[in-house]
Design brief:
Layout (H helix, E strand, L loop, with lengths): L3 E7 L3 H13 L3 E7 L2 H14 L7 E4 L8 H8 L4 H4 L3 E6 L4 H9 L3 E6 L4 H11 L3
Parallel strand pairs: 1-2, 1-3, 3-4, 4-5
């Protein structure tokens, strides 16, 4: 499995983030994993990286859709404002328990979103990302 340097998890469910971190670490998918319970916090962290150390922009971002405060759709709107040269090198995946086909279709229609996966994060999802998206 390919090893990424930095992964961001954005989900308001602390237990889900803990489980995702465990799956990522157990399969040596990434060197560093950062979890955010609030999309606003993740955007602040990304903006700080853009300002201070663009080379540290995460290669993978897992984003939940249904969150209090700023939801996943609003996050994507703000994410679009970040420098394209960084966001184009990053893979943004929606990882959600949303089952509404409209949400899935809409997520996959957005140029910023590489794919939509249903929770929970599994080894199979990590393998798909490593095999399909690492070569692009």
């Amino acid at each position: 499995m390919n090893k990424y340097r930095r992964v961001f998890l954005i989900d308001d469910d602390e237990i889900h983030n803990f489980l995702c971190e465990s799956v990522i670490r157990n399969h040596q998918f990434a060197e560093e994993v950062y979890s955010f319970l609030w999309a606003e916090e993740a955007l602040k962290a990304l903006s700080k990286i853009v300002e201070e150390a663009p080379e540290n922009f995460p290669e993978i971002i897992f984003l939940d859709i249904n969150m209090p405060g700023m939801d996943g759709w609003e996050f994507i709107e703000e994410y679009r404002k970040l420098p394209k040269e960084l966001t184009e090198k990053s893979n943004l995946f929606v990882l959600s328990s949303a089952v509404d086909k409209k949400d899935i279709t809409y997520a996959r229609s957005l140029s910023e979103v590489r794919d939509f996966f249903s929770k929970p994060l599994t080894t199979e999802i990590l393998e798909i990302i490593s095999e399909v998206y690492a070569q692009e």
